[in-house]
Every structure is written in structure tokens, then in C-alpha cells.
């Protein structure tokens, strides 16, 4: 709750009142912006030290932000928030003296304090610190949003995420869970013998995906360069170098649209394993997801923001791309249709497609617009047309298709994977078809590395942001990116 003198004045007035308090403190020889405080215990660590029934309780040193303040004459209760949660402080004149209590009574919601004292349990059963010494270590000049109303402006939530994380426990838990997810992915792969790599973000030629890059300029070399759109081609060079199991977690940049599922800057993990293939990646991705369910979430049954129940345990469904398209269009002859016939069928089904698209792109529009959104339970979509990915092995049994899968969950792609193309001649041919006349975009350095020999391999990418959305039940990618890109505010 806010202090009495701030209840009926607006934010600018509160700022003025708090700034005056700061000046008064400094005038009395005390600057609250301390260089350090010996925080020996987090709130959780302190609570664990309490021994039920013991008369001799541990003395703890805790620190955090004041988020609740009940000033009651000569004794007060305060709650502070730290990285682990909240803990209650009991502050009284009997324990700290009149002079220190007088200074303490001028503290405000939002101030950051350090406190030392013995643990005890209140009549209501709450483990509390009986404060023997309390010190303000950073003055909060601006008021926090009211606890019960919080932040209601979505723009403010994303622009001032730090306030959202202070006030909103759900946002705080989600941010922590994201950290746990990334940590557990790393731990899982390290335990499997994978080695973590770091590859360039600034690149001369962008590759590994079909996406519009962000352009920049390097003064030292006097040349244009790009922010990476994938880590694939450099990680494959590591396979050539003899590192058989590699991965990288990093930021990817694609200068494209914003939506509930897309952000131009996002986090991805790419994983490559020599002497494996796309089926090896099937087993690996399922194992990773189920490990995360066990270690982070505590269950393989996930509930989305709209109440949909998704089961990630057990075996997952596998479907061929072709079969899904035939079912969606209700036409067994789809793949023998001319492009014009396909466009007509799309019109009948009210599927909007670009009439200037290539034949395979029309089919893929059908997949993206009416097939993928219905794949709610985990589904491996296999045997995609060879035109869709120039970096994958062509299926030996049917050269129209690739040895790939797209893992779809909750109506969106979460992880694509391939049997990686390692024939330098086939790879060059596929690249040249993809780029057409733009020969300057051909990554000859990567093709050169393949000529030294790259072992057969399976490779996979997982969108970390989409994975976190799935495992936390978030509604939007903006909810799980701490500081999403926003338009500048007027006057800023």
C-alpha cells in the first residue's frame, strides 16, 4: 500500500515529494545510493533457515525493494521483493531505536533496502525478519504502479518491462521459466556430448534460410554487411572441421513482419549431429521437449492461453505433407492439377494465394493457411517438396521430396529439421536454383568447405521464443521477449 502523503497526489507530485526527501537526506549527510550491501541471503534462503520450535533462530542479511508498507506507530511490517520472491520485515523502535525508526518511517514503496535481523514466525504463521538494522541503499523517486491495478496499458507493459516484472507475478514467473528452459536445454545437450559454438552475427553473405536481412556497414572493411538470418552454414563448417555434435543458442535477425507469433529479432537454437539424419533429430527433439516438461514444467500436459490441452508425452504423430494437403483440399488429384486448377480450388475454399506464385508455392500457401493451424498436438510433417529447402537431402525413394520434418504444435511450426545436404555439387545446384541470377549471393566459402568433406548429418532448429510461449501458456511472443522492439514515443 502507498504511504498516506502520496495517496491523493498524482505521479508528478509524488516525484517532487520524493525528490525533496532525497535532498533532505543529502542535506543531513546521508546519500541513499549506496555502493554495496552485504546481502548474504535471498528471501528463499532466509526462509529455509528458520527452524520450527527453536528459540535460537538464524540472523540473516536480506535486501530488496519495498513492495508493501504498514506503518503502525512504533512498529511496522514491510515486505521486500528480491530475485527469489518476497520476505516480510518487522521493524520497531524497541529493536532499532527511535532515531533510526524515525528515518525508516520516511521510506517509500519502491525504495531498495538492506536489513539484518533474526528470523521469527508471526501469529499468522509468516516467517519474518525481526530487524536490528535497516539501511536504504537506493531511493525510488517514482511511484510503482498500484498493486491491485498494475499496468493496464500494454504499450507501457512492454516499454517499461521492469515495472511489469516488479508488479506482475505472472510476468516474473514467465521470465524465470524462460531462463530455466534455456539453461535446461544447454544442460541436456552438454550431457549428450554436444559442444556449444559461437558463430558470426555480422556476415558478408546471409544464408541458411530464406529471409530478408537487416543491412549495416562495417567501417573497418569499408563494406556492407548483414545481421545473420540463421547460424546454419557456419555450424556446418564445424562439422567439416571434425566437431561432430554442435549447437548454438543465439539471436537471429529477419527484417520482416511483426505479429503475435513473429518478431524480427528472436532467439533460436540450431543443433547439428554428424552421422545422424532427420529421424535422429526426431528422437532428439522429442527427448528435449519431454526433458523440459519434466524438469521445468513438471508435467507433459500443457494448457495454452485459450485453454487448449496439449500432450507432449509419449510418441508423437507423423504425417506426410502430401496426405495433409489432399485432406485439406478434399481432392486426391491435387498433385496432378495444373497451377490454374489449384488456384481455382483455392478460390473455392476461400484460401487467399498470390496468383503469381510458383506451383509449389501455391500448395505451400494451402499448407500454411489451412493445414498447419489445425496441427495442435505434436506432429512431425515429413516429405516436403524438394523446392522448399535447398539445404536438405533429397529422398532416395522419391526424388520429389526431401528428408525433412517440420514439428508443428498448437498450430505453428516449432522446429524444422533435415538430413543435411553434404554433396557439394548438388548443394551448388540447389543454391543456384534458389538465387537465380543473383550469383553474388552464392556462398562460395561454404561450398568450398563442403568440398573438403562434410559427414552425413542431421540438423535442426528450434525457435526458443515459440517454445517458451508453448511451455508457459503465454498469449503472444511479446509476452516472453523481455524488451520487444516498439516505435519510439513522441518526444523521446
What does this structure look like?
The strands form four sheets. Strands 6-10-11-18-17-16-15-14 form an eight-stranded mixed beta sheet, with helices on both faces. Strands 1-2-3-5-4 form a five-stranded mixed beta barrel. It has a three-stranded antiparallel beta sheet with strand order 7-9-8, with no helix packed on it. Strand 8 (215-218) and strand 9 form a beta hairpin. It starts with 10 loop residues before the first helix and ends in a 12-residue tail after the last helix. It is of the alpha+beta class and 492 residues long. Helices cover 33% and strands 24% of the residues. The chain has two domains: 4-144, Beta Barrel (OB fold (Dihydrolipoamide Acetyltransferase, E2P)), CATH 2.40.50; 165-316 and 377-480, Bira Bifunctional Protein, Domain 2 (BirA Bifunctional Protein, domain 2), CATH 3.30.930.10. It is built from 16 helices and 18 strands.
How do the strands and helices of this protein lay out in sequence?
Layout: H1 11-27, H2 43-48, E1 59-72, E2 75-82, E3 85-92, H3 93-96, H4 98-104, E4 112-121, E5 127-138, H5 154-159, H6 161-167, H7 169-191, E6 195-196, E7 202-203, E8 215-218, E9 223-227, H8 232-240, E10 245-253, E11 265-274, H9 278-297, E12 301-303, E13 309-311, E14 317-320, H10 321-329, H11 339-348, H12 359-371, E15 379-382, E16 404-409, E17 412-419, H13 424-435, H14 444-451, E18 457-463, H15 464-472, H16 477-480
Parallel strand pairs: 3-5, 6-10, 14-15
Antiparallel strand pairs: 1-2, 1-4, 2-3, 4-5, 7-9, 8-9, 10-11, 11-18, 12-13, 15-16, 16-17, 17-18
Helix pairs in contact: 6-7, 7-9, 10-12, 11-12
Amino acid at each position: 500500500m502507498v504511504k498516506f502523503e502520496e495517496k491523493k497526489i498524482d505521479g508528478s507530485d509524488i516525484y517532487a515529494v520524493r525528490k525533496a526527501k532525497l535532498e533532505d537526506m543529502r542535506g543531513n549527510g546521508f546519500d541513499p545510493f549506496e555502493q554495496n550491501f552485504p546481502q548474504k541471503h535471498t528471501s528463499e534462503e532466509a526462509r529455509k533457515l528458520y527452524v520450527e520450535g527453536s528459540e535460537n533462530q538464524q540472523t540473516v542479511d536480506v535486501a530488496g525493494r519495498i513492495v508493501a508498507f504498514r506503518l503502525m506507530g512504533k512498529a511496522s511490517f514491510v515486505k521486500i521483493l528480491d530475485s527469489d520472491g518476497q520476505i516480510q520485515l518487522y521493524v520497531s523502535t524497541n529493536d532499532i531505536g527511535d532515531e533510526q525508526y524515525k528515518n525508516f518511517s520516511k521510506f517509500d514503496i519502491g525504495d531498495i533496502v538492506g536489513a539484518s535481523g533474526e528470523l521469527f514466525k508471526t501469529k499468522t504463521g509468516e516467517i519474518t525478519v525481526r530487524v536490528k538494522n535497516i539501511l536504504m541503499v537506493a531511493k525510488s523517486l517514482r511511484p510503482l504502479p498500484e498493486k491491485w491495478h498494475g499496468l493496464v496499458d500494454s504499450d507501457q507493459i512492454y516499454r517499461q518491462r521492469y515495472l511489469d516484472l516488479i508488479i506482475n507475478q505472472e510476468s516474473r514467473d514467465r521470465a524465470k521459466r524462460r531462463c530455466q528452459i534455456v539453461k535446461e536445454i544447454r544442460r541436456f545437450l552438454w550431457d549428450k556430448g554436444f559442444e556449444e559454438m559461437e558463430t558470426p552475427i555480422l556476415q558478408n553473405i546471409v544464408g541458411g534460410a530464406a529471409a530478408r536481412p537487416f543491412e549495416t556497414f562495417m567501417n573497418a572493411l569499408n563494406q556492407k554487411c548483414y545481421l545473420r538470418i540463421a547460424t546454419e552454414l557456419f555450424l556446418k563448417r564445424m562439422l567439416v572441421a571434425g566437431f561432430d555434435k554442435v549447437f548454438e543458442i543465439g539471436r537471429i535477425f529477419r527484417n520482416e513482419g511483426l505479429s503475435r507469433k513473429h518478431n524480427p529479432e528472436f532467439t533460436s537454437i540450431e543443433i547439428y549431429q554428424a552421422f545422424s539424419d532427420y529421424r535422429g533429430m526426431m528422437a532428439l527433439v522429442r527427448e528435449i521437449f519431454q526433458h523440459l516438461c519434466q524438469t521445468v514444467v513438471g508435467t507433459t500436459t500443457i494448457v495454452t492461453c485459450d485453454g487448449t490441452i496439449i500432450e507432449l508425452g509419449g510418441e508423437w504423430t507423423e504425417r506426410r505433407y502430401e496426405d495433409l494437403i489432399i485432406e485439406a483440399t478434399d481432392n486426391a488429384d491435387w498433385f496432378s492439377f495444373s497451377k490454374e486448377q489449384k488456384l481455382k480450388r483455392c478460390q473455392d475454399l476461400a484460401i487467399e494465394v498470390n496468383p503469381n506464385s510458383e506451383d509449389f508455392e501455391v500448395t505451400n500457401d494451402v499448407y500454411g493457411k489451412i493445414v498447419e493451424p489445425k496441427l495442435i498436438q505434436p506432429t512431425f510433417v515429413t516429405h516436403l517438396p524438394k523446392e522448399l529447402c535447398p539445404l536438405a537431402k533429397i529422398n532416395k525413394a522419391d526424388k520429389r521430396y526431401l528428408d525433412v520434418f517440420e514439428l508443428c504444435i498448437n498450430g505453428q511450426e516449432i522446429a524444422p529439421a533435415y538430413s543435411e545436404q553434404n554433396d557439394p555439387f548438388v548443394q551448388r545446384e540447389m543454391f543456384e536454383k534458389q538465387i537465380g541470377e543473383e550469383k553474388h549471393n552464392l556462398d562460395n566459402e561454404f561450398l568450398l568447405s563442403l568440398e573438403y568433406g562434410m559427414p552425413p548429418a542431421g540438423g535442426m532448429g528450434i525457435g526458443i521464443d515459440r517454445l517458451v510461449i508453448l511451455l508457459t501458456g503465454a498469449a503472444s511472443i511479446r509476452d516472453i521477449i523481455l524488451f520487444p522492439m516498439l516505435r519510439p514515443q513522441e518526444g523521446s
